[in-house]
Structures are given as C-alpha cells and as structure tokens.
Amino acid sequence: MYNVRKVQEDLIWVGASDHRLNLFENIHPIPRGVSYNSYVLLDEKNVLFDTVDWSVCGQFLENLKHVLDGKKLDVIVIHHVEPDHLASLEEVMLRYPEARIYATAKAITMMEQFGFAVEGKTQAVKEGDTLELGKHTLTFVMAPMVHWPEVMVSYDSYGKTLFSADAFGTFGALDGKLFNDEVDFDRDWIDDARRYFTNIVGKYGVQTMNLLKKASQLDIEMICPLHGPVWRNNFSYIIEKHQLWATYTPEVKGVMIAYASVYGHTESAAQALASKLVQTGIKDVVVYDVSNTDPSYLVSEAFKYSHIVLASSTYNACVFPKMQDFLEHLKMLNFQNRTIAIMENGSWASMSGNLMRKMLEAMKNMNVLDSTVKINSSLHTEEPLDALTEAIKQSM
C-alpha cells in the first residue's frame, strides 16, 4: 500500500518511516525510530529528490510509482550520498533508466566508490548552477561538511522551498505527521533534534553557520529535510536552535551533573550536590549516570546546559572508562564554551580529577572552576559541596 503526503500542490513526500532500526549509523539509539524523506516534484520535468535507506526501499518504490502514475522521471537530485539516502538509487535507475542524476562532482565520485553504475548518467553541478524544470527553477547551493564533504542543498524559487539535505533533520519516525505544526515540536521532538544535530553535525559548527548564512539570503516558505518533519512556519524557532548548537552556545543556564561511580559513593556525592544546587535557587539541574546513559544523550545534554559537573571515580589509575568515553566524544565533536566543575574519588591514588582537567584543556574556551571536590572513598562533610555550590552559583 502506498503512503504519500502532499507537501505543496506539485510536491509530494514519498519517503518512509522505520521503527525496526535500533541504532542510527550503527551507533546512536533511536527508540522513536527515524524517517527517510524523499520528495517528487511534478513539472515539465519530473524530479526525485534523494532516495531512502535500503530498509524502507520497498515502501519508497511503491510510493514513487503511485505518484508518477506512468509519467517519466527526468531528474534525480542527490543532495547527500550517505547510504541512508543513496542506497535505493540503483533500484530507481532500473525502473526509470532515462533519469539523469544531478549532484556535486565529489558526490558522483562517491557514488562510484559505493559501487553504483552511474557513468554517463550524471550531471555535476556547482554553487549557483540552476536547473529549469518548467515553472519551477532549482538553484544548487554547496554545503560541504554539513556533514559530509559532498553535501549540497537546493532551492526552488517558485515554491520558495529549501531542500536542506541533513540540515534541520531529527531522529524520530513521522508516523503520518509530516509538518512541524502537526506535532508539538518543543515538547516531543526538540530533544531528538538536538541529539541528532550535536552527535552527527555538531563537529561542523562553522560549516553549519556558513549554510545558515546562505539560507538567510533566500526567500524560504518551506524547509524539506531528509529526516524528520517538514517546516512550513515558525522558522525562527528551529533556526535559532541551530545557531545556538552550531556556535556551541548553551540553550539553558543550568547544570548537568555527569557521574561515574563504581559502588555508589561518587553517586551519593553527586546527588547531594544536585540537592544543594536546587536549594540555592538553580532549578535547571539534571543528573546522569554515565555507565547507563548512551553517550549520544550525554553529548546532547552537554550542548544544552551552560555548566557541567564531572564526578568520576579513579579506575586503574585512570578516569573511569565510561566518563573518559564521554569526554572523548565531546572532544571529537569540537565541544567548547562551557563552565566545568570537577569531583574526583579515589580510595588510595586519586587520579581522575587531574586527568579530566587535562582532557578539558584540549577543548576550546573551557572554564574549569578551581573548587575541585576531592573524595577519599566516601564524602563525610558538606563543606566541599557547599564551596562547589557557591562557586557554580557565582560563575552564573
């Protein structure tokens, strides 16, 4: 059974949602699933924008066949060749052999690397190139490293629509709801959108800002991403969020406490600190055990909050492995511009505090507070926590 949604009068969503996949890119948990968006534009020349992951290829092909309804497919625009968007290309080519593929030169090279027989079927495009379709005209805009080097976006001046590739995407299956105003985005989607951006695109903040600058010069009435809802209003909301994430600017003036505890003593101190922070008037406080929280969630929360407390046991004279993994993720994603407090625990040779401080020194603009809490096995007095609470409050 086909399942399509009309986006505009002659623009139709032909993508699909996937609830079977557990890990996006085989690393990030997606308990709410994910959508793979593809669009067909009907004009004198009919255009397919991107394909879908192999897991939903059957549904996608059925949707495409229904929308074209015997019409010729003239153009395939590939904005991004990551396999979750490219995998079904060959199936489309088999069914519509006259279609010509428009993509960046680097994207065409990558298609060949992935084993797709596209020779003689492609047209390389560059910044500012246009494609006349009839009443619609596409303009191609380069967006390298958002988040692969071959990425481009395209703009339809007639429909005032930006096909934004992975930009403005999010985790989460659509389940029939296509547009941003058909969901409560701030309640149900923003955490997945933040986790998607920070973990996948987060390292490329400068490149994202470059794309946002280009997009600001276009008259946009609709944004069609490759994952998640289509935006048809309230653009300032989602653009502001991306500006914050891309510039490593906190969304919330609050405290994230991430702790690594072997037998519960570090956890106890972290929870006591959380209580003190809330009692002193800092209401936005969240606490995470790094041992049972996937790093993608920890990264997302780190991008959200202005202050981070790292509380870690020493383990084999090193930082507790799960805490070290979290910090390595932050470093890999070019994380910066935060105030950090440190709590360390060690029964005989406490090393985690200094080692965490060294890891933070490799990141940009990290203000590490001097009031380190040192725990010897367990904490027996409130004074170190009181001093750290005051230091955090003053830094705000």
Automatic annotation (TrEMBL):
It comes from the Bacteria. One of its GO terms (molecular function) is FMN binding. Residues 255-396 form the Flavodoxin-like domain. Gene3D superfamilies: 3.40.50.360, Ribonuclease Z/Hydroxyacylglutathione hydrolase-like. In the N-terminal section; belongs to the zinc metallo-hydrolase group 3 family. PANTHER family: ANAEROBIC NITRIC OXIDE REDUCTASE FLAVORUBREDOXIN (PTHR43717). This is FprA family A-type flavoprotein. It comes from Faecalicoccus pleomorphus.
